[in-house]
Amino acid sequence: MPSRPAWRGQIRLALVSIPVEIYPATKSGAQIQFHQVHEPSGKRIKYEKVVPGIGPVDPDEIVKGYEVSKGHYVLLDPEEIEAVKLESRKTLDLVQFVDEDDIEAMYFEKPYYVVPADDLAEEAYVVLRDALKDAKKIGVGQMAMRGQEYVVAIKPSGRGILMETLRYADEVHKSSGFFRDIGDTKPDPDLLDMASMLIERKAGEFDPSEFHNRYVDALKDLIAEKQKKKGEKVIQDPDADKAPPKGSNVIDLMAALKKSLGDEKKGKTTKAAAKKAPAKKATKEPARKRA
Q1: pLDDT for residue 288
Q2: What pairs with residue 43 in β-bridges?
Q3: What residues have CB less than 8 Å from 133, skipping those under 6 apart?
Q4: Rounded to 5°, angle at Cα 147 from 9 and 251
Q5: How many C-beta atoms surround the C-beta of residue 46 within 10 A?
Q6: Three-state secondary structure string covering 213-267
Q7: Mean pLDDT, the chain, as a whole number?
Q8: Which residue has the higher pLDDT, 257 or 108?
Q9: Which residues partner with 153 through β-bridges?
Q10: What is the pTM of this model?
Q11: Residue 89 region, left (φ>0) first, then alpha (ψ -120 to 50), else beta?
Q12: Distance (Å, rounded) from C-alpha 65 to C-alpha 140?
């Protein structure tokens, strides 16, 4: 189980409130990450946040803005966004119960495990789980999590409860636009029988462990083969171990600590950094003044 839940709150069913914690039910699988490389020099392509006419900017100077018309933005501070109050931030109200097959598969987005927050919540949690199981229903409601409000569905899953975020209606393309040109022709009975026999022959219970990402495996083999050959396509970035240049949008741990400790700590850190500055930088300033 992850150390921190994605959401803490309560599921409310009429006058009954059940304290729960919600954890992601999925994790990222094996992936191959590619970087863009400038082939002639062997250096990795870098990206900076820049302002036209100004150049690279400090991440602390970046705020969120909503474009209300071309080139006109309403700027919002993080505190203002956080202050937007939604009752669903801490409460998942179950407002509707539907049959298990009423929600089309395309609406389901991401699954989460719902667990009782403590021993006192377990009894009500089990009652809700078994009531859903007996009724063969899915509970539907809305909740706010990580800066967004989601439509969610909860249903029994083994000894617990599974929650799935759902896509809103305006996030799903209507199928009619894709299927309208498919005719009403009935399939050939013999072909249909053969297809049915094939389906029956390969019928079985789904076992996710039988499947793995063959594309990732093939890429790993290709990379290992290229590396073994040590050919022209295996290069080394000469700047890989260098510190990021000034003005970069990379935020290191020291910068984050300076910000947390406040202006007083910043001043002390700046003085300490000045004492450690290379001597050659100190000799350049008088030279510029003489010029």
Answers
A1: 47
A2: 38
A3: 156
A4: 120
A5: 13
A6: CHHHHHHHHHHHHHHHHCCCCCCCCCCCCCCCCCCCCCCCHHHHHHHHHHHHHHH
A7: 80
A8: 108
A9: 140, 164
A10: 0.64
A11: alpha
A12: 33
